[in-house]
Amino acid sequence: MSRYKVPRGTFDILPDQSYKWQFVINAFREVARGFNYREIITPIFEKSGIFERSVGETSDIVEKEMYKFEDKKGRIFALRPEGTAPVVRSFIENGLMLKPNSSKLYYLGPMFRYDRPQKGRYRQFYQYGIENIGTMNPYADAEVIAFAYMFLSKLGLKNFVLQINNIGCKNCAKDYDNALKEYFKPNLDALCSDCRKRLEKNPKRVLDCKVKSCKEIARDAPSMLDYLDDDCRANFEKVQEYLNAMEIPYIVNPKIVRGLDYYSQTAFEFVDTNLGAQNTLIGGGRYDTLAEQLGGKNMPGIGFAGGFERLLLSMEEEKLPFGLQQKPKVYLVSLGDEARIAGIKIIMELRENGISTEFDPDKTSMNAQMKAANKTGTEFALILGENELIKNKIILKDLGNGEQKVINISDIIMSIKDK
Ligand code: AMP
Protein backbone atom coordinates (compact mmCIF):
# COMPACT_ATOMS: atom_id res chain seq x y z
CA MET A 1 0.00 0.00 0.00
CA SER A 2 1.26 3.43 -0.89
CA ARG A 3 1.69 5.78 2.06
CA TYR A 4 0.04 8.59 0.15
CA LYS A 5 -3.26 8.82 -1.60
CA VAL A 6 -4.44 11.19 -4.29
CA PRO A 7 -6.15 14.25 -2.68
CA ARG A 8 -9.90 13.97 -2.08
CA GLY A 9 -11.91 15.08 -5.09
CA THR A 10 -9.01 14.48 -7.50
CA PHE A 11 -7.96 11.41 -9.45
CA ASP A 12 -5.17 10.03 -11.58
CA ILE A 13 -5.85 9.47 -15.24
CA LEU A 14 -4.14 6.13 -15.82
CA PRO A 15 -2.83 4.88 -19.17
CA ASP A 16 -5.86 2.68 -19.81
CA GLN A 17 -8.05 5.78 -19.45
CA SER A 18 -5.83 8.52 -20.86
CA TYR A 19 -6.42 7.37 -24.43
CA LYS A 20 -10.08 8.30 -23.96
CA TRP A 21 -9.07 11.79 -22.92
CA GLN A 22 -6.80 12.08 -25.93
CA PHE A 23 -9.66 10.97 -28.15
CA VAL A 24 -12.10 13.62 -26.93
CA ILE A 25 -9.42 16.33 -26.86
CA ASN A 26 -8.50 15.56 -30.47
CA ALA A 27 -12.16 15.71 -31.45
CA PHE A 28 -12.49 19.06 -29.66
CA ARG A 29 -9.44 20.49 -31.43
CA GLU A 30 -10.83 19.37 -34.78
CA VAL A 31 -14.12 21.14 -34.19
CA ALA A 32 -12.18 24.23 -33.05
CA ARG A 33 -10.26 24.21 -36.32
CA GLY A 34 -13.51 24.02 -38.28
CA PHE A 35 -14.88 27.08 -36.50
CA ASN A 36 -11.52 28.90 -36.62
CA TYR A 37 -10.97 29.04 -32.85
CA ARG A 38 -7.32 29.14 -31.77
CA GLU A 39 -5.90 27.87 -28.50
CA ILE A 40 -4.99 30.14 -25.63
CA ILE A 41 -3.13 28.78 -22.61
CA THR A 42 -3.24 30.86 -19.44
CA PRO A 43 -1.64 30.15 -16.03
CA ILE A 44 -3.31 27.80 -13.59
CA PHE A 45 -3.27 30.48 -10.89
CA GLU A 46 -4.21 34.14 -11.09
CA LYS A 47 -4.65 37.05 -8.68
CA SER A 48 -7.76 36.08 -6.75
CA GLY A 49 -9.32 39.50 -7.42
CA ILE A 50 -9.81 38.52 -11.04
CA PHE A 51 -12.40 35.99 -9.99
CA GLU A 52 -13.82 37.95 -7.08
CA ARG A 53 -14.52 40.95 -9.30
CA SER A 54 -15.91 39.05 -12.27
CA VAL A 55 -17.41 35.74 -11.19
CA GLY A 56 -18.91 37.66 -8.29
CA GLU A 57 -18.19 37.84 -4.59
CA THR A 58 -21.51 36.27 -3.71
CA SER A 59 -21.27 33.37 -6.14
CA ASP A 60 -20.70 29.92 -4.65
CA ILE A 61 -17.46 29.62 -6.59
CA VAL A 62 -15.91 32.69 -5.00
CA GLU A 63 -17.61 32.57 -1.63
CA LYS A 64 -17.03 28.92 -0.79
CA GLU A 65 -15.03 27.09 -3.39
CA MET A 66 -11.86 28.97 -4.26
CA TYR A 67 -8.46 27.51 -3.51
CA LYS A 68 -6.87 30.75 -2.35
CA PHE A 69 -3.31 31.10 -1.14
CA GLU A 70 -0.81 33.72 -0.22
CA ASP A 71 2.63 33.68 -1.83
CA LYS A 72 5.88 34.54 -0.04
CA LYS A 73 5.34 38.24 -0.66
CA GLY A 74 1.81 38.25 0.72
CA ARG A 75 0.06 38.43 -2.66
CA ILE A 76 -3.25 36.60 -2.78
CA PHE A 77 -3.68 34.15 -5.63
CA ALA A 78 -6.28 31.55 -6.48
CA LEU A 79 -6.11 28.32 -8.42
CA ARG A 80 -8.40 29.19 -11.29
CA PRO A 81 -11.98 27.99 -10.66
CA GLU A 82 -13.02 28.76 -14.26
CA GLY A 83 -11.51 29.79 -17.56
CA THR A 84 -13.41 32.80 -18.86
CA ALA A 85 -12.07 35.51 -16.54
CA PRO A 86 -8.40 34.53 -17.18
CA VAL A 87 -8.99 34.47 -20.96
CA VAL A 88 -10.60 37.92 -20.87
CA ARG A 89 -7.79 39.16 -18.60
CA SER A 90 -5.24 37.95 -21.15
CA PHE A 91 -7.27 39.33 -24.06
CA ILE A 92 -7.15 42.83 -22.55
CA GLU A 93 -3.55 42.59 -21.34
CA ASN A 94 -2.23 41.48 -24.72
CA GLY A 95 -4.40 43.69 -26.89
CA LEU A 96 -5.80 40.70 -28.77
CA MET A 97 -8.64 42.83 -30.12
CA LEU A 98 -6.10 44.33 -32.52
CA LYS A 99 -4.59 41.05 -33.70
CA PRO A 100 -6.01 38.98 -36.55
CA ASN A 101 -7.61 35.63 -35.78
CA SER A 102 -7.47 36.31 -32.05
CA SER A 103 -11.02 37.00 -31.00
CA LYS A 104 -12.17 33.39 -31.15
CA LEU A 105 -10.24 31.41 -28.54
CA TYR A 106 -10.38 27.99 -26.95
CA TYR A 107 -8.76 26.60 -23.84
CA LEU A 108 -8.27 23.21 -22.24
CA GLY A 109 -7.05 22.49 -18.75
CA PRO A 110 -7.68 21.84 -15.08
CA MET A 111 -9.92 24.03 -12.93
CA PHE A 112 -10.20 23.87 -9.15
CA ARG A 113 -13.20 24.20 -6.87
CA TYR A 114 -13.46 23.19 -3.25
CA ASP A 115 -16.84 21.51 -3.40
CA ARG A 116 -18.25 18.29 -1.97
CA PRO A 117 -17.05 15.60 -4.38
CA GLN A 118 -19.60 13.31 -5.98
CA LYS A 119 -20.10 11.53 -9.29
CA GLY A 120 -19.37 14.10 -12.00
CA ARG A 121 -18.12 16.71 -9.51
CA TYR A 122 -14.48 16.95 -8.50
CA ARG A 123 -12.13 19.41 -6.85
CA GLN A 124 -9.77 19.32 -9.79
CA PHE A 125 -11.62 18.86 -13.06
CA TYR A 126 -10.71 19.40 -16.68
CA GLN A 127 -12.58 21.86 -18.77
CA TYR A 128 -12.74 22.61 -22.46
CA GLY A 129 -14.12 25.99 -23.34
CA ILE A 130 -14.38 28.64 -26.01
CA GLU A 131 -14.77 32.42 -25.98
CA ASN A 132 -15.78 34.73 -28.80
CA ILE A 133 -14.84 38.23 -27.65
CA GLY A 134 -15.73 41.58 -29.18
CA THR A 135 -19.10 41.13 -30.85
CA MET A 136 -22.67 41.71 -29.76
CA ASN A 137 -24.01 40.06 -32.89
CA PRO A 138 -26.48 37.28 -32.00
CA TYR A 139 -24.94 35.20 -34.78
CA ALA A 140 -21.94 34.78 -32.44
CA ASP A 141 -24.23 33.35 -29.75
CA ALA A 142 -25.66 30.86 -32.21
CA GLU A 143 -22.22 29.93 -33.50
CA VAL A 144 -20.89 29.27 -29.99
CA ILE A 145 -23.88 27.04 -29.32
CA ALA A 146 -23.39 25.35 -32.70
CA PHE A 147 -19.76 24.59 -31.81
CA ALA A 148 -20.86 22.82 -28.60
CA TYR A 149 -23.59 20.97 -30.46
CA MET A 150 -21.23 19.83 -33.20
CA PHE A 151 -18.67 18.66 -30.65
CA LEU A 152 -21.14 16.51 -28.69
CA SER A 153 -22.62 15.17 -31.92
CA LYS A 154 -19.22 14.36 -33.37
CA LEU A 155 -18.53 12.16 -30.34
CA GLY A 156 -21.75 10.30 -31.11
CA LEU A 157 -23.70 11.51 -28.08
CA LYS A 158 -27.47 11.46 -28.46
CA ASN A 159 -28.93 11.71 -24.97
CA PHE A 160 -28.57 15.40 -24.45
CA VAL A 161 -30.85 18.40 -24.64
CA LEU A 162 -29.93 21.98 -25.40
CA GLN A 163 -31.77 24.49 -23.24
CA ILE A 164 -31.53 28.18 -23.97
CA ASN A 165 -32.69 31.34 -22.25
CA ASN A 166 -32.17 35.07 -22.21
CA ILE A 167 -31.55 36.41 -18.72
CA GLY A 168 -31.82 40.07 -19.74
CA CYS A 169 -29.39 42.95 -19.51
CA LYS A 170 -28.59 45.60 -16.92
CA ASN A 171 -31.59 47.52 -18.19
CA CYS A 172 -34.31 44.89 -17.79
CA ALA A 173 -32.92 42.40 -15.27
CA LYS A 174 -33.57 44.80 -12.37
CA ASP A 175 -37.34 44.68 -12.80
CA TYR A 176 -37.18 40.93 -12.96
CA ASP A 177 -35.04 40.73 -9.82
CA ASN A 178 -37.64 42.84 -8.01
CA ALA A 179 -40.43 40.60 -9.27
CA LEU A 180 -38.55 37.56 -7.98
CA LYS A 181 -38.03 39.16 -4.59
CA GLU A 182 -41.74 39.86 -4.35
CA TYR A 183 -42.58 36.33 -5.41
CA PHE A 184 -40.30 34.61 -2.91
CA LYS A 185 -41.00 36.95 0.03
CA PRO A 186 -44.00 35.02 1.44
CA ASN A 187 -41.96 31.79 1.34
CA LEU A 188 -38.74 33.12 2.79
CA ASP A 189 -38.66 30.66 5.66
CA ALA A 190 -39.00 27.68 3.36
CA LEU A 191 -35.94 28.63 1.31
CA CYS A 192 -32.53 27.21 2.18
CA SER A 193 -30.13 29.56 3.97
CA ASP A 194 -28.09 30.04 0.77
CA CYS A 195 -31.15 31.07 -1.16
CA ARG A 196 -32.18 33.57 1.49
CA LYS A 197 -28.84 35.29 0.89
CA ARG A 198 -29.13 34.88 -2.87
CA LEU A 199 -32.51 36.56 -2.81
CA GLU A 200 -30.88 39.68 -1.43
CA LYS A 201 -27.86 39.80 -3.70
CA ASN A 202 -28.75 37.95 -6.88
CA PRO A 203 -32.33 36.63 -6.78
CA LYS A 204 -32.04 34.80 -10.13
CA ARG A 205 -29.73 32.31 -8.48
CA VAL A 206 -32.60 30.98 -6.40
CA LEU A 207 -33.96 29.51 -9.65
CA ASP A 208 -30.73 27.54 -10.01
CA CYS A 209 -30.80 26.00 -6.52
CA LYS A 210 -30.68 22.22 -6.41
CA VAL A 211 -32.38 21.93 -2.99
CA LYS A 212 -35.74 20.21 -3.45
CA SER A 213 -37.86 22.61 -1.38
CA CYS A 214 -36.34 25.63 -3.16
CA LYS A 215 -37.01 23.99 -6.50
CA GLU A 216 -40.64 23.44 -5.59
CA ILE A 217 -41.16 27.02 -4.48
CA ALA A 218 -39.39 28.27 -7.63
CA ARG A 219 -41.63 26.25 -9.93
CA ASP A 220 -44.21 29.01 -10.48
CA ALA A 221 -41.80 31.93 -10.24
CA PRO A 222 -42.20 34.71 -12.81
CA SER A 223 -40.40 34.12 -16.09
CA MET A 224 -37.59 36.38 -17.25
CA LEU A 225 -39.01 36.17 -20.74
CA ASP A 226 -41.93 38.34 -19.62
CA TYR A 227 -39.53 41.06 -18.49
CA LEU A 228 -37.12 41.27 -21.44
CA ASP A 229 -36.77 44.73 -22.97
CA ASP A 230 -37.12 45.18 -26.73
CA ASP A 231 -33.41 44.76 -27.48
CA CYS A 232 -33.04 41.58 -25.44
CA ARG A 233 -36.20 40.13 -26.90
CA ALA A 234 -35.07 40.89 -30.47
CA ASN A 235 -31.67 39.44 -29.69
CA PHE A 236 -33.16 36.25 -28.31
CA GLU A 237 -35.35 35.87 -31.39
CA LYS A 238 -32.36 36.33 -33.68
CA VAL A 239 -30.36 33.68 -31.82
CA GLN A 240 -33.24 31.28 -32.28
CA GLU A 241 -33.57 32.16 -35.95
CA TYR A 242 -29.89 31.30 -36.51
CA LEU A 243 -30.18 28.08 -34.51
CA ASN A 244 -33.19 27.09 -36.60
CA ALA A 245 -31.24 27.83 -39.77
CA MET A 246 -28.40 25.60 -38.50
CA GLU A 247 -30.95 22.90 -37.66
CA ILE A 248 -29.91 22.73 -34.04
CA PRO A 249 -32.70 21.44 -31.81
CA TYR A 250 -33.27 23.29 -28.53
CA ILE A 251 -35.86 24.08 -25.95
CA VAL A 252 -36.41 27.43 -24.29
CA ASN A 253 -36.09 27.08 -20.53
CA PRO A 254 -36.60 30.38 -18.66
CA LYS A 255 -35.09 28.81 -15.51
CA ILE A 256 -31.57 28.55 -16.97
CA VAL A 257 -29.75 31.35 -15.16
CA ARG A 258 -26.08 30.22 -14.80
CA GLY A 259 -24.29 30.59 -11.50
CA LEU A 260 -21.79 33.35 -12.25
CA ASP A 261 -22.35 37.09 -11.92
CA TYR A 262 -20.93 38.18 -15.23
CA TYR A 263 -23.59 36.67 -17.44
CA SER A 264 -26.22 38.66 -19.31
CA GLN A 265 -28.60 37.94 -22.20
CA THR A 266 -28.05 34.51 -23.78
CA ALA A 267 -27.60 31.65 -21.32
CA PHE A 268 -27.59 27.98 -22.30
CA GLU A 269 -26.89 24.49 -21.06
CA PHE A 270 -26.44 21.11 -22.66
CA VAL A 271 -27.96 18.66 -20.21
CA ASP A 272 -27.44 14.92 -20.31
CA THR A 273 -30.73 13.13 -19.83
CA ASN A 274 -29.07 10.01 -18.35
CA LEU A 275 -26.58 11.37 -15.84
CA GLY A 276 -27.57 11.83 -12.21
CA ALA A 277 -27.46 15.07 -10.21
CA GLN A 278 -24.43 16.50 -12.02
CA ASN A 279 -25.96 16.39 -15.46
CA THR A 280 -24.90 19.64 -17.10
CA LEU A 281 -22.40 18.72 -19.77
CA ILE A 282 -21.78 22.23 -21.03
CA GLY A 283 -22.82 25.63 -19.73
CA GLY A 284 -22.37 28.95 -21.39
CA GLY A 285 -23.61 32.41 -22.03
CA ARG A 286 -22.99 36.00 -22.92
CA TYR A 287 -20.97 38.30 -20.70
CA ASP A 288 -21.15 41.90 -21.75
CA THR A 289 -19.63 43.58 -18.71
CA LEU A 290 -16.83 41.17 -17.78
CA ALA A 291 -14.05 43.02 -19.63
CA GLU A 292 -15.08 46.28 -17.98
CA GLN A 293 -15.08 44.62 -14.56
CA LEU A 294 -11.50 43.54 -15.22
CA GLY A 295 -10.47 47.09 -16.08
CA GLY A 296 -10.66 46.88 -19.85
CA LYS A 297 -12.83 48.66 -22.36
CA ASN A 298 -16.44 47.76 -22.66
CA MET A 299 -16.18 44.59 -24.69
CA PRO A 300 -18.88 41.96 -25.06
CA GLY A 301 -18.25 38.25 -25.32
CA ILE A 302 -19.89 34.86 -25.40
CA GLY A 303 -18.56 31.41 -24.59
CA PHE A 304 -19.10 28.04 -22.98
CA ALA A 305 -17.28 25.56 -20.79
CA GLY A 306 -17.74 21.85 -20.31
CA GLY A 307 -16.10 19.23 -18.14
CA PHE A 308 -14.33 16.26 -19.67
CA GLU A 309 -15.21 14.00 -16.73
CA ARG A 310 -18.95 14.27 -17.33
CA LEU A 311 -18.43 13.96 -21.04
CA LEU A 312 -16.63 10.63 -20.56
CA LEU A 313 -19.33 9.45 -18.16
CA SER A 314 -21.96 10.24 -20.81
CA MET A 315 -19.99 8.52 -23.54
CA GLU A 316 -19.51 5.45 -21.37
CA GLU A 317 -23.20 5.47 -20.53
CA GLU A 318 -24.02 5.50 -24.27
CA LYS A 319 -21.32 2.87 -24.93
CA LEU A 320 -19.55 5.04 -27.49
CA PRO A 321 -16.13 4.13 -28.88
CA PHE A 322 -12.96 5.99 -27.90
CA GLY A 323 -10.68 4.72 -30.65
CA LEU A 324 -7.83 2.30 -30.05
CA GLN A 325 -5.54 2.15 -27.07
CA GLN A 326 -1.90 2.78 -27.79
CA LYS A 327 0.34 -0.27 -28.06
CA PRO A 328 3.58 -1.02 -29.90
CA LYS A 329 3.38 -2.45 -33.40
CA VAL A 330 6.68 -4.30 -33.27
CA TYR A 331 8.54 -6.14 -30.54
CA LEU A 332 12.23 -6.80 -30.93
CA VAL A 333 13.46 -10.20 -29.78
CA SER A 334 17.22 -10.38 -29.85
CA LEU A 335 19.43 -13.34 -28.98
CA GLY A 336 23.06 -12.75 -28.03
CA ASP A 337 25.14 -9.61 -27.48
CA GLU A 338 25.90 -8.79 -31.09
CA ALA A 339 22.30 -9.27 -32.20
CA ARG A 340 21.21 -7.06 -29.34
CA ILE A 341 23.38 -4.15 -30.50
CA ALA A 342 22.26 -4.66 -34.12
CA GLY A 343 18.66 -4.84 -32.89
CA ILE A 344 18.95 -1.57 -30.99
CA LYS A 345 20.05 0.12 -34.22
CA ILE A 346 17.05 -1.39 -36.00
CA ILE A 347 14.52 -0.20 -33.45
CA MET A 348 15.92 3.33 -33.60
CA GLU A 349 15.37 3.31 -37.34
CA LEU A 350 11.86 1.93 -36.97
CA ARG A 351 10.97 4.65 -34.47
CA GLU A 352 12.38 7.34 -36.74
CA ASN A 353 10.02 5.99 -39.39
CA GLY A 354 7.04 6.28 -37.09
CA ILE A 355 6.77 2.56 -36.29
CA SER A 356 6.12 2.04 -32.59
CA THR A 357 8.60 -0.50 -31.27
CA GLU A 358 9.25 -2.10 -27.88
CA PHE A 359 12.27 -3.91 -26.50
CA ASP A 360 12.95 -5.23 -23.00
CA PRO A 361 16.63 -5.06 -22.01
CA ASP A 362 16.00 -7.19 -18.92
CA LYS A 363 14.96 -10.26 -20.87
CA THR A 364 17.45 -12.41 -22.79
CA SER A 365 15.84 -15.79 -23.58
CA MET A 366 13.68 -16.34 -26.64
CA ASN A 367 10.87 -17.65 -24.48
CA ALA A 368 10.77 -14.69 -22.09
CA GLN A 369 10.93 -12.16 -24.92
CA MET A 370 8.18 -13.85 -26.96
CA LYS A 371 5.95 -14.02 -23.89
CA ALA A 372 6.49 -10.33 -23.28
CA ALA A 373 5.72 -9.57 -26.93
CA ASN A 374 2.41 -11.43 -26.69
CA LYS A 375 1.53 -9.67 -23.45
CA THR A 376 1.93 -6.19 -24.92
CA GLY A 377 -0.36 -7.17 -27.79
CA THR A 378 2.06 -6.17 -30.55
CA GLU A 379 1.32 -7.15 -34.13
CA PHE A 380 4.82 -8.33 -35.05
CA ALA A 381 7.92 -9.77 -33.46
CA LEU A 382 11.27 -9.17 -35.15
CA ILE A 383 13.54 -11.99 -34.13
CA LEU A 384 17.26 -11.50 -34.55
CA GLY A 385 19.85 -14.18 -33.65
CA GLU A 386 23.52 -14.47 -34.49
CA ASN A 387 22.74 -16.78 -37.44
CA GLU A 388 20.41 -14.31 -39.07
CA LEU A 389 22.72 -11.39 -38.35
CA ILE A 390 25.63 -12.97 -40.23
CA LYS A 391 23.40 -13.17 -43.32
CA ASN A 392 21.93 -9.67 -42.81
CA LYS A 393 18.53 -11.29 -42.33
CA ILE A 394 15.87 -11.12 -39.63
CA ILE A 395 12.73 -13.10 -38.85
CA LEU A 396 9.42 -11.25 -39.10
CA LYS A 397 6.70 -13.04 -37.18
CA ASP A 398 3.05 -12.05 -37.44
CA LEU A 399 1.75 -12.61 -33.89
CA GLY A 400 -1.84 -12.57 -35.09
CA ASN A 401 -1.68 -15.68 -37.31
CA GLY A 402 1.71 -17.06 -36.24
CA GLU A 403 3.18 -16.88 -39.76
CA GLN A 404 6.82 -16.04 -40.02
CA LYS A 405 9.27 -15.33 -42.77
CA VAL A 406 12.91 -14.46 -43.13
CA ILE A 407 13.50 -11.04 -44.69
CA ASN A 408 16.49 -8.82 -45.44
CA ILE A 409 17.30 -6.39 -42.64
CA SER A 410 17.24 -3.60 -45.22
CA ASP A 411 13.63 -4.51 -46.12
CA ILE A 412 12.19 -4.35 -42.60
CA ILE A 413 10.48 -0.99 -42.87
CA MET A 414 8.99 -1.75 -46.26
CA SER A 415 7.72 -5.16 -45.06
CA ILE A 416 6.11 -3.73 -41.93
CA LYS A 417 4.69 -0.60 -43.55
CA ASP A 418 3.05 -2.78 -46.18
CA LYS A 419 1.01 -4.56 -43.52
P1 AMP B 1 -19.49 26.17 -14.87
O1 AMP B 1 -18.15 26.85 -15.04
O2 AMP B 1 -19.88 25.99 -13.44
O3 AMP B 1 -20.54 26.78 -15.72
O4 AMP B 1 -19.31 24.69 -15.42
C1 AMP B 1 -19.21 24.38 -16.76
C2 AMP B 1 -19.08 22.88 -16.90
O5 AMP B 1 -17.89 22.45 -16.26
C3 AMP B 1 -20.17 22.09 -16.22
O6 AMP B 1 -21.26 21.95 -17.06
C4 AMP B 1 -19.49 20.76 -15.99
O7 AMP B 1 -19.45 19.98 -17.17
C5 AMP B 1 -18.08 21.19 -15.66
N1 AMP B 1 -17.87 21.31 -14.19
C6 AMP B 1 -18.11 22.37 -13.42
N2 AMP B 1 -17.76 22.11 -12.14
C7 AMP B 1 -17.30 20.86 -12.10
C8 AMP B 1 -16.77 20.02 -11.08
N3 AMP B 1 -16.63 20.43 -9.82
N4 AMP B 1 -16.39 18.75 -11.43
C9 AMP B 1 -16.50 18.32 -12.70
N5 AMP B 1 -16.98 19.08 -13.70
C10 AMP B 1 -17.37 20.33 -13.42
Overview of this structure, please?
It is a single chain. This protein has 419 residues and is α+β, with helices and mostly antiparallel strands. The protein has two domains: 15-158 and 249-317, 2-Layer Sandwich (BirA Bifunctional Protein, domain 2), CATH 3.30.930.10; 330-417, Rossmann fold (3-Layer(aba) Sandwich), CATH 3.40.50. The chain is 38% helix and 21% strand. The chain contains 15 helices and 16 strands. The strands form three sheets. Strands 1-5-6-11-10-9-7-8 form an eight-stranded mixed β-sheet, with helices on both faces. A hairpin with a 5-residue loop joins strand 3 and strand 4. The two termini are 44 Å apart. The model has no long low-confidence stretch (mean pLDDT 94). Bound molecules: adenosine monophosphate.
Per-chain topology:
Layout: H1 15-34, E1 38-39, E2 45-47, H2 48-54, H3 60-64, E3 68-70, E4 76-79, H4 84-93, E5 104-112, E6 124-133, H5 138-154, E7 160-166, H6 170-184, H7 193-201, H8 212-218, H9 230-245, E8 251-252, E9 264-272, E10 280-286, H10 290-293, E11 301-307, H11 308-317, E12 330-334, H12 337-352, E13 357-358, H13 366-376, E14 380-384, H14 386-390, E15 393-398, E16 404-408, H15 412-418
Parallel strand pairs: 1-5, 7-8, 12-13, 12-14
Antiparallel strand pairs: 2-4, 3-4, 5-6, 6-11, 7-9, 9-10, 10-11, 14-15, 15-16
Helix pairs in contact: 1-5, 5-9
This protein binds adenosine monophosphate (AMP).
Q: What's a quick, concise take on this entry?
A:
Helix content is 38%, strand content 21%.
